[in-house]
Specification:
This protein is an alpha/beta fold. The protein is built from eleven helices and eight strands. It has two domains: 151 residues, Glutaredoxin, CATH 3.40.30; 125 residues, no CATH class. 45% of the residues lie in helices and 13% in strands. It starts with a helix and ends in a 15-residue tail after the last helix. The relative contact order is 0.14. The structure holds zinc ion.
């Protein structure tokens, strides 16, 4: 997510996957056997509800179904389905939208004790795919990111951690630039001359998001962008992989398929990232310095 630096660092270093529970970056995903039991001392927002296709939003604040946020999320849903060839209407994603950070934080702290503070969480259970967040300055970006996780988990049996985050990072970007995160593009472009090199197998080995730093989020985003826009073969590999994930939770490593097409795929990604260096004008530090 394109958060302020402190939030990004926090998000990228404090999530985890362990038996029964899988926490994905700014999100967490429960599998069957989750040992956390909610202590619902703080209540969920239920005063208002809006149903919009796959999205059900329950909130403390009144939002019209005509609100641009719903239009944006529905367009995002269609875009995810179109670009990733995923089926629509595979499951509902419930968004619990609190009116302010205090109410949201109180609910998260009492229901999921020990979680680090985050602006939003995605929680998947066998019964519900849920997003928890609050109304704030980053609501569109946060909802796009979390809703993307919800759409992926609705359509797929499972999704590797790095790919889950890479796709969510890609789709959180609204606007006409096809998932380009200017800050990431600049950071990576600046890191390459300093010796940074992509390593998709290393990303694939990350099962615990506590191991992930912002460089890993950036690289995950970069691989997804490269596969969707920088390599026709990569796009085919990604779409085939996602199609298999609809039937099986573990179709093997995506990297094996990419390298079978192009053994030098990491060099190809580097060349692709070099073409993206002109995106964004923000003054940022090198990815290798993060
Ligand atoms: Zn995420």
């Amino acid at each position: 997510m394109t958060h302020p630096a402190s939030s990004v660092t926090s998000i990228a270093t404090s999530s985890t996957r362990y038996r029964g529970v899988s926490i994905v970056g700014c999100c967490l995903f429960f599998f069957i056997g989750c040992q956390w039991t909610g202590r619902n001392q703080a209540s969920l927002p239920t005063r208002h509800s809006v149903q919009a296709e796959q999205l059900l939003m329950l909130s403390d604040i009144r939002l019209s179904k005509d609100h641009p946020l719903f239009q944006d999320l529905n367009e995002l849903r269609l875009d995810v389905a179109r670009q990733l060839h995923l089926p629509l209407d595979k499951g509902q994603v419930v968004v619990y939208l609190f009116s302010d950070e205090d109410k949201y934080s109180r609910y998260i702290e009492t229901t999921f004790p020990g979680l680090p503070p985050r602006r939003a969480y995605f929680v998947g259970t066998p019964d519900q795919l849920a997003v928890y967040t609050y109304w704030g300055d980053h609501i569109q970006e946060d909802l796009r990111h979390e809703f993307t996780h919800g759409l992926l988990h609705a359509a797929l049996k499972d999704v590797p951690l790095w790919l889950d985050e890479g796709i969510a990072e890609y789709f959180e970007i609204a606007g006409p630039n096809s998932g380009v995160n200017p800050e990431y593009a600049q950071r990576l472009a600046q890191a390459i001359p300093k010796g940074w090199r992509p390593n998709i197998r290393r990303l694939e080995d990350l099962e615990n998001v506590r191991e992930m730093n912002r460089d890993d989020y950036q690289e995950s985003w970069a691989w997804v962008h490269f596969m969707l826009h920088g390599s026709p073969d990569g796009q085919i590999v990604l779409l085939d992989y996602l199609r298999e994930l609809q039937a099986t939770p573990n179709p093997g490593r995506l990297s094996d398929r990419l390298k079978a097409e192009h053994p030098d795929v990491e060099e190809r990604l580097l060349s692709y990232l070099a073409t993206m260096a002109t995106f964004g004008t923000a003054s940022v530090s090198s990815a290798s310095e993060l």
